[in-house]
Amino acid sequence: MHPYLAELIGTALLLLMGSGVVANVVLNQTKGNQGGWMVITTAWALGVFIGVVVAGPYSGAHLNPAVSFALCITGDLPWSELIPYSLAQLVGAAIGSGLTYLIYKPHFDATNDADAKLAIFCTAPAIRYLPSNISSEVIGTFVLIFVVLYMGDPVIENGEKTPLGLGALGAIPVAFLVWVIGLALGGTTGYAINPARDLGPRIMHALLPIKNKRDADWSYSWLPIFAPLLGALLAALLALHLS
Asked: Measured on CA atoms in the order 47, 94, 138, 215, is the torsion positive or negative?
């Protein structure tokens, strides 16, 4: 599989699960209605797991422009790959959220809460206060990127440190990382920590014929792009300094 296609499919799977669980929790007459934050954060983490399992062998499973950006800074990804990777992730995120709409369309139609419908596609702050909102996304993404940069396969000490590949099990630490970020830090802004995850679905919300929808909150949309990239920059620079 081509790396760009792997990023597209992996990110689409991530958003299908992530948008899907929010739809299941917030839309009317679903089996999971009012399931709560634990259900949402758990499904997002498991969505990361399956995205990494599928895309990992082919692209490294960034699934996030902030990850790709950080890897460019550390020299692990050529700068020429940043835009293609990011576009693949953006398109994948849009596709995943679009599929969520198709699956849950009757429940969208049965729900009058326009804010809840928007929340299925993109993040919004619980309290709109930009200094706090920016710092939440910067710190959350910093934790994600800094820990990811220190993750590696276990090795067998045989004089040359042979990597011990764990296959799909290697995706579990990333899933746990995203899970704890959501549980510990996600209550302020909804922990976008991923520009494609927020922007692609936000565009889909604007384009889809959703019944009784509101605007896509474009005045806030820059923050889940800028702040995660800033967090990624700080994490990559610190990792380089410590290496």
From this structure: negative
Q: What is the CATH number of the domain that holds 108?
A: 1.20.1080.10
pTM of the model: 0.93
| Cα–Cα distance for residue pair 47/1, rounded to 1 Å | 20
CA–CA separation, 220 and 66 (whole Å)? 18
Length of the chain: 243
Measured between alpha carbons, how far is 45 from 224 in angstroms, rounded to an integer?
19
* Token duo for residue 61: 């499973």
Contact criterion met (CB below 8 Å) for 171 and 53:
yes
Q: What is the pLDDT of residues 160-216, one digit of tens each?
A: 655 444 456 678 999 999 999 999 999 999 999 999 999 999 999 999 999 999 999
Measured CA to CA, the distance from residue 224 to residue 93 in angstroms comes to 14
Q: Which domain holds residue 113?
A: 3-242
Q: How many domains does the chain have?
A: 1
Longest dimension (CA), the chain: 64
Give CA–CA dist 162/205, Å, rounded.
Answer: 47
Closest CA to 105 of 199, 13, 19, 47: 19
Closest CA to 227 of 176, 188, 201: 188
For residue 224, CA distances in Å to 4, 60, 185 come to 23, 23, 14
> Which H or E run includes 100?
helix 82-109
Dist CA 178 CA 44 (whole Å): 8
